[in-house]
Amino acid sequence: MKKRILTLLLSATMVATLVAGCGKSTSGSNDGAKGSTGKKELNILVESGSPGESVAKSTAAEFEKQTGYKIVIDAVPYTGIYDKLSTEIKSKSSVHDVATLDVLWLPAFKNGLLPLNDLATNDIKSDFLPTLVEGGTLDSSLYGFPMWINTKVLIYRTDLFNDTANKSAFKSKYGYDLIVPTTWQQYKDASEFFTKDGMYGTAVFGAASGDTVCSWLDHVAQAGANPLVLDKSNKVLVNQAPYVEALQYICDLYKKGYAPKETLSVASSEAEEMFKGGKLAMQLNWSHQYPDAYAAQKGKVGVAPMIGGSAGIAATTGPWYQSILKTSKNQDIAKKYLKFMYDNNEEYIKAPLKIAGRISVYEKYGTQKGFEHINAVLTTLDAKQSQNRPATPYWTEIEGVLYGTIQNALSGKSTPQEALDDAKTKIEEIVK
Amino acid sequence: MRIISRKTLIMFFLPCAIFMGIFLVYPILKMISDSLYTFDITGIKSFVGFDNYIKAFTTTSFLLPLKNTAKYMVIAVTTELFFGLIMALLFEHQFKGNKIIRSFILIPLMIAPLVAGLIWKLMLSSQFGIVNQILQNLHIIKDTNSILWLADEKWALLACTFADIWLTTPFMMLMILAGLQGVDTSIIEAAKIDGANKLQQIFSIKIPNIKPVLLTALSIRIIDAARTFDIIWVMTQGGPNSSSEVISVVIYRTLTRYNKAGYASAMAVIFIIILVIFTLVFMKSLWKPKSE
Q1: Side by side, which strands form the sheet with A282-286?
Q2: Which spans in A297-432 are helix H?
């Protein structure tokens, strides 16, 4: 009898330990279950190391003071946000109340997000920077409140452009003054000119990543494409003239040696490192890279709007939004949080990346030293051809096809036309 | 009379069985079941039979990564075994500073694969990397752009194995060293008296005696190398032109990026079957403890 009792007790202890181990801890700062236990908490999913995390942390105390709700921040890497939300939305049970989202993910998560039309009054929307309303709206419903928007801009070495020897040498070679490029031709000429003495004129993004596609699409938009990649009826547009011209343009920059040979492993951060290390004279990169480049090159860095092609200046935009999960049990307070963060949008521009999502914030900071990139972004965003990437849930898969296509053309395996014809067939297979 | 009753045994076994059932058996069964369906973007599934398997075997998006995985596995594990064995034979002998050097060599084992990948990515950069700079200084290459480790299809996969080899050779060394230290010294003494030279002692006495340890280490490393992910993801993301794409990268991308749970499950099932067969055949053909 004694042995049986002992056995039962032992087994019960083991099972209890197992169950306790499998269960969710109710302590710790990232515990999403606390909200459901009745405590006044709001769970926020943010990208670790991003302004989203730092601003969420710096404003949490104020929000708690105003509402009594404690902000619980779950900071995960970029791809971790997608993975976590994907699981939560598929399982129809959310740990998080509010999530920060890249515009590219909105179509995939649309069914799991709360429409915010009632919260976004015309007054509020009129202060969103250009393309933010379009980017956050799917089927007439707004699914996110903007945190910030970013575009690529031209970041260049002012010391090289202001050098008198360079100016006269450039004029004698190309027949016009050395100016900060505004067109494809000027950019190509300047890239050729500065490719000397161990330095490259520019960088071309060619790594197996979304950056490569986004960068090529900047040029596609400059060449006149609108919309990008897919039209409203999901017709695939990628082998049309602007797409081929843009691909030919970046292939020329690379094959003529104006960009580093290791282009097939270069994306935004690699280009920035090269620029900071004095290996590049110019780069077309995300605007948030400017402050860092400026500091690294001890102020010898300038910033200008994106260059223009035959259709003028254009860039694909990179907005981030805060959205509420449909399955959140704290929807009302989550809405208050979104409005609170909108009111405090200025905090994002004070964060290291120095970008934000409201026109009023950009206007306030645009004239201040250290924020020169803001005006370049505003000019680029205001351009007619600047636009979002297509709002399709298949985007990540399409992107995979497209960076493969760009790599094929850059490595000379196919001509731009052949590579894009092949891409069209593959994308049609994905969206059919 | 039994010391412990059958019921007691079951009670002891039950918690682990429940755990294994929930976290191992159920996910595998679910994966096999999912591999027979396709899932649309809203999660609604439709039965497609073996279509996902047929697709896997007829498209390069699966076959090329499979080939790359095999290449990666062979290069990484063979090199690790070679250097691990040499180092273990070296550290078997007591010399001044042995313990300190051995501790230093173990440092990579304490580094996360992701961090190792980042370190090697920087070292292999043709603009700033130390590797090409050293090769240039030694006049092995003309300039630092001569070998584009991460941007050239010829080199990308090999470059990724460098990080793996650096990271796990110490593990191989540790395992082999443990085996060597367990070899009966009297056998070596006898071999010496019989006139066996150093090489004969290694190949005829030491290696046959540490075969079980060697095979265990090899099995662990083969499985580990086959499912490698973080090093490749951080160094090349599978590029350029899919030249360094391995199976785990494709499965991850298909499942989490493309939301194709059915196809990803089918690829994972095939991969598990291949790995299990390979390991069984490998172990069976090389290790027959009973017959020995």
Answers
A1: A282-286, A152-157, A301-304
A2: 331-343, 346-350, 359-365, 372-382, 395-410, 416-431
Q: Do A301 and A343 lie in a common domain?
A: no
Q: Select the residue of A8, A262, A270 nearest B148 (Cβ to Cβ).
A: A262
Which H helix or E strand runs over A285?
strand A282-286
pLDDT of residue B180: 92
User: What does DSSP say about strands A145-148 and A152-157: parallel, antiparallel, or unpaired?
Assistant: unpaired
Look at residue B82 and tell me if it is in a domain.
Answer: yes
Which candidate, A109, A139, A37, places its Cα nearest to that of A325?
A109
Residues A170 and A277 in one domain: yes
CATH of the domain at B251: 1.10.3720.10
Q: Which tens digits make up the pLDDT trace of A398-412?
A: 999 999 999 999 999
Pairing of strands A41-47, A70-76: parallel
Residues (pLDDT < 50) of chain A are: 15, 18-36
d(CA A254, CA A262): 10
Q: Which residue of B has its CA nearest to A210?
A: B237
**A90 contacts on B by Cβ (under 8 Å):** 43
Residues A197 and A274 in one domain: yes
H/E run at residue B114: helix B113-123
> Is the minimum CB–CB distance between B144 and chain A shorter than 8 Å?
no
Using one digit for the tens of pLDDT, what is the confidence trace for A20-38?
A: 444 443 333 343 444 445 6
**Residues in A touching B14 (Cβ below 8 Å):** 11, 15
Question: Which pLDDT value is given to residue A42?
Answer: 94
Same domain for A255 and A213:
yes
- Specify if B276 maps to a domain: yes
The range of the structural domain enclosing residue A362 comes to 11-149+319-370
ipTM: 0.81
Domain of residue B63: give its range.
45-286
Domain count, chain B: 1
Q: What pLDDT, on the 0 to 100 scale, is given for residue A232?
A: 87
Largest Cα–Cα separation, chain B: 80
B chain contacts of residue A111, beta-carbon cutoff 8 Å: 42
A29 and A107 in a single domain? The answer is: yes
B33: contact with A, CB 8 A cutoff: no
* pTM reported for the whole predicted model: 0.84
A235 lies in the same domain as A312: yes
> Does a structural domain hold residue B9?
no
